[in-house]
Amino acid sequence: MPDQLKHIKEFLVARAYDGFGARKYIGHTHLDSARTYIHEWAVPQLYIAVKADDPHYDPVGPATSARSATAVIAYMREMQRDMQALQRIDPYGDLYLMMCKSGQEGAYMDELAEALDLDDPDWRSK
């Protein structure tokens, strides 16, 4: 059975574990609030969603296969709602810009949506 989260897992390891630039800083526990949110909430919650869909997933372990993307889709919908609210509240703030606007460190939401599109092209209608 093909892995239903292949591209999400690649995104998680290649981009998200870097903390979207957070790990470039020595003492990354003293990050600005936008990087702290991504590093301490957004990425860990994505990992939890991946683990819910693929309980045996270990980013440094052997390959595993997710049978669904249900929890990741729920995570994505929650994040979309949060970003819509943030756009109304603070559209020029660092967090919104890092999460939703392409920049030097990418755009978390765009890259996440691209990965989910590759794994489950119909996720928006589920």
Descriptive notes:
The protein has 126 residues and is mostly helical. The protein has helices at residues 6-14, 33-53, 70-89, 94-100, 108-119. The longest helix is centred in the middle third of the chain and has 21 residues, at 33-53. The two termini are 21 Å apart. The model has no long low-confidence stretch (mean pLDDT 86).
Compact overview of the structure:
The protein has 126 residues and is an all-alpha fold. It has helices spanning 6-14, 33-53, 70-89, 94-100, 108-119.
Question: Features of this protein?
Answer:
5 helices, single chain, 126 residues, mainly alpha
Describe the secondary-structure layout.
Layout (H helix, E strand, L loop, with lengths): L5 H9 L18 H21 L16 H20 L4 H7 L7 H12 L7
Helix pairs in contact: 1-5, 2-3, 2-4, 3-5
